[in-house]
Amino acid sequence: MEHMEDLTAFLEEVDELLANTEQNLVELEKSPSGKAIIQEIFRAMHTIKGGAATLGLQDGVEVTHATESILDTIRSGQRALTREITDLLFSVLDWLSSWKAALESGSERPPIESIMAQIHGIQGARPGADETGEDAATSSEDVLQVEDYREGEGSFTPDPDLARQIAEKLKQGEPVYKLTVSLDQAELLSVRCFQLLVLVGEEAEIIGSVPSAEKVEAGEVGDALAIYLTSDDGGESARRAAESVQDVIQVSLVPYELPTQEQAGRQAGQGARGHGPTPGGPESPDAQEDSGSDSLVRTTNLGRTVRVNVALLDLLLNLVGELVIDRPRLSQLASRLQANTDTAVIGNEVAALSARLQRTSQELQEGIMKARLLPLRSILSKFPRMVRDLSSRCGKLIDFEIRGERPELDRTVLEAIDDPLIHILRNAVDHGIEMPEERKALGKPERGRITLSAWYQENQVLIRIRDDGRGIDPDRIRESAVNKGIITREAAARLSDREALELIFTPGFSTAREATEVSGRGVGMDVVKSNLERVNGHIEIKSQVGVGTSATLRLPLTLAIVRALLVECSGITYAIPTPSVEEVLAVRRDDVKTIKGKAALTVRGRVFPLVSLEGCLKDDPWMGNGKFRYAVLTRTHDEPLALGVDRLIGEEEIVVKELGRILSRIKGIGGATILPQGDPAVILDTNTLLWR
Amino acid sequence: MSSSQNQERDLNGRETGHDRQIVAFCLGSETYGVDIQKVREIIPIQKIVPVPRAPDFVEGIINLRGKVIPVLDLRKHFGFEKKEATPEQRIVLTESEGEGIGVIVDSVSSVIRISDDAVEPPASVIAGEANDYIQGIAKVNDSLIVLLDLTRIISDAEKRTLKQVDLASALAG
Fold it and tell me: Tens digits of per-residue pLDDT, A572-628?
């Protein structure tokens, strides 16, 4: 891939589109008549196709193109939306997901044959070949001649289909424009043409082009392209879009009119197509969606947001960290100046400046922490599909609803709750909701219901997953816990029902007799709980036999998260907050000198006393005589210091945890954290590491 | 022990009437017991990460379900000699002013029910300084169980820590 960045951006977009499409498909199953949804899925396919073409990913282009054709027949009403088709669309989605994943990881992309066979299986005769008789019967297209393009070297035969479509648009009273683009003779002509079609297509509705989109895709292009389009703004935005494409030499835009009797044609058209409800009221799904302000317009999904590279965000976080560290030093300087009568005036000014800096840097810090927030939606969007698949696999009927996906949480928290939510939902589907017959027999509605709701409460976000299934029987839990040797029978009998429920969080507990395909996977509620606890979250289960179960997650809005360098000394891992780290380096023997018998490291002319981190913590800083593999350059009490360590593990985002009263006042130690592997580790405070 | 239970002591300092449940554990050759009410849970020994500069009776910290919990070594606290880790070792988790704290013991033998009548107040000679956190000595089947007040031990440890830290700061400053 020539442009890695392009690919990355494309994959991110695909990711979002697939997530949206998935949601749309689930939605579509509920209301198969949703034209707006079909249109949105169509657009997603189209956008992916465009991107894939630009990047030369032919397989992606083929699959999305074939899918588009199917969707096209549905939106034009030629084909009804059957279960068979939604299943196919889900398969396409799966193929695209694994295709995307393969691109991401650079592994082999999935084969195209079987999915194409599936698509063609449904498609039967390719639509387009069998245009409906009604359309073909429309007269007066003969008068229209779409000129073939002759200025360029390529010469193309006029396309009667295109001519007819243009005539139709004009008859409906829509303005048609012809956008002519001349291209430099470049290697990527076909790609450029495709880009043009894609970009212009985003700004205006393309009726057709010469050469046609199919030919462009097949690579049959010359150094010019004519696009016929309709647009609300006189085609201006389309022209700008075209001009933005590389290798474009010239763009011209002219209104396209029927050569003769335009008026007459238009009126005739209206008369002929009597089923158009309003004059000029087009039947294209596009317009329907635009005019019909239905509640399902999910264009808001994209929101007014900008993608920010995580690395950039981290950089900003580090810079803010540095500001925060420098803050007290400035105020110290101020008080030193203020103490001296000669400099008191300057001191006052510095103090005022320092106070302002404090305020700004604090707001900046809060802002950056907020920038790390992502909407819950980003992890919830895959759930409707998941629940659909799971429930159809177990033969259950389930309505799944998400309420309130707006709350935002820190990235770290979102990552930590993803698996727990999946697990809880799987449990709800597998163990919670009963089979339809059973529900019927119990007098419950046949369709089970699972609701995921999320909302803010004070400084927390609450997520609740509730089902109306069979509930959890405390006695069964007791029994199971006793059988598994988790608790004695006597102790189990003593537990209240509520306490008994808590047993499901015990490691090794699972009420399922056998791990099923759905809820198996070997993770239990204990893992769910520990995942949540790592990010200071909490889970509570309530259940009533026969009525249902609810699991409520409480999550902190923001966390005390710091980026920290993990280092190792004598097998123990320590975390040093990144803002206090100036540099890390491998120690070369030559750079270590002794000054008055004490080791010092010279780095680009600067001298750092080289002490042992382990020694510092044992109050014997000069332990090891400067023989270290790596050094961390930092400052302690405002003076440069190199800390010798055995190993550098890497940088990590860590959640700061309390150490408890007994350990809270130890100098040089700022707190503790839980490392990703689950071990606790001490967070160092380099500024107080060495006692003065 | 709560004050209400103290009120139930008779003139000889014995508690009357009630039974109590004791978690019995071993340290060296001796058996100790703590009130089951004070024990939140008992977990097998797990990875304990040492905390530099911590008081010497603090063995380190553990990850208990996402919380960082300090763990104390009772052997060190009582001035017993250090012992190699064994699979029988357990961490007895208790709570002090809302914070969890773990205590390492050599092994947990059982939960036993003893009648208050079997508990004698500690003889001051045996208890020595530890008088504060020894609640009594129970006789069970000819063996003696020293009943400990874990909360006392911990608040005692906290006081010692503060002293140690303050002293160190004073010396350093």
Answer: 999 998 878 888 999 888 888 888 888 888 888 888 889 889 888 887 878 777 678
User: Do the Cβ atoms of B65 and A533 come within 8 Å?
Assistant: yes
- Cα(A545)–Cα(A364) distance, rounded to whole angstroms? 50
Q: Does B168 touch chain A (CB under 8 A)?
A: yes
Note whether A620 contacts B: Cβ–Cβ < 8 A. Answer: no
d(CA A133, CA A220): 30
Domain ranges, ordered by start, for chain A: 2-136, 160-271, 310-375, 377-472+511-556, 561-684
Name chain B contacts of A666, Cβ cutoff 8 Å: 51-54, 165
Q: What is the DSSP string of A143-198?
A: G--PPPP-SSS------HHHHHHHHHHHHTT--EEEEEEEE---TTHHHHHHHHHH
Architecture of the domain made up of A2-136: Up-down Bundle (1.20)
3-state secondary structure of A138: coil
Pairing, β A548-556 against β A538-544:
antiparallel
SS3 call for A509: coil
Cβ atoms of B63 and A679 within 8 Å: the answer is yes
One-letter-per-residue 3-state SS of B71-126: EEEHHHHCCCCCCCCCCCCEEEEEEECCEEEEEEECEEEEEEEEEHHHEECCCHHH
Query: Could you tell me the pTM of the whole model?
Result: 0.47
Looking at domain A160-271, its CATH architecture is: 2-Layer Sandwich (3.30)
Q: What is the DSSP string of A306-366?
A: ----HHHHHHHHHHHHHHHHHHHHHHHHHHHHHHSGGGHHHHHHHHHHHHHHHHHHHHHHH
**Hey, which residues does B100 pair with through a beta bridge?**
B95
What mean pLDDT is predicted for residues A190-206? 81
Contact flag B66-A674 (C-beta cutoff 8 Å): yes
The DSSP element (H or E) to which B6 belongs, if any, is helix B3-6
Kindly identify which residue of chain B lies nearest to residue A617, measuring between CA atoms.
B52
Question: What's the CA gap between A139 and A330, in Å, rounded?
Answer: 83
Query: Length of chain B in residues, anyone?
Result: 173
* Long-range CB pairs of A535-539, under 8 A, 24+ apart, other chains included: A535/A410, A535/A412, A535/A413, A535/A416, A535/A417, A535/A559, A535/A655, A535/B66, A536/A655, A536/A657, A536/B66, A537/A413, A537/A416, A537/A417, A539/A420, A539/A505
CA distances B87 to A47, A645, B156, Å, are 61, 32, 28
Could you say which residues from 2 to 41 on chain B have a Cβ atom under 8 Å away from some Cβ of chain A? none
Q: Look at A62-76, A323-337, A491-505 and tell me which has the smallest mean pLDDT.
A: A323-337
Write the DSSP symbol of residue A375: E
Reading phi first (left if > 0) and then psi (alpha if -120 to 50, else beta), residue A688 is in alpha
Six-digit token string for A63: 């699959």
Tokens of B35: 């009130």
Of B51, B165, B168, Cβ closest to residue A682 = B51
Q: Which two structure tokens, joined as six digits, stand for A301? A: 């999904």
Strand pairing category for A598-603 and A592-595 = antiparallel
Q: Residues A284, A287, A292, A294: is their CA dihedral positive or negative?
A: positive
In this structure, whether the domain defined by A377-472+511-556 belongs to CATH 3.30.565.10 is answered with yes
pLDDT band at A127 (very low <50, low <70, confident <90, very high): very low
Nearest Cα of chain B lies from the Cα of A559 at a distance, in angstroms, of 14
Task: Determine the CATH number of domain B9-172.
Answer: 2.40.50.180
Q: CATH top-level class for A561-684?
A: mainly beta
* A420 close to B (CB below 8 A): no
Q: Does a cis peptide bond (omega within 30 degrees of 0) precede residue A255?
A: no
Residues in A touching B101 (Cβ below 8 Å)? 660, 662
Instruction: Give the DSSP H/E element, type plus range, for residue A506.
Output: none
Q: How far is it, in rounded angstroms, from Cα A41 to Cα A536?
A: 39
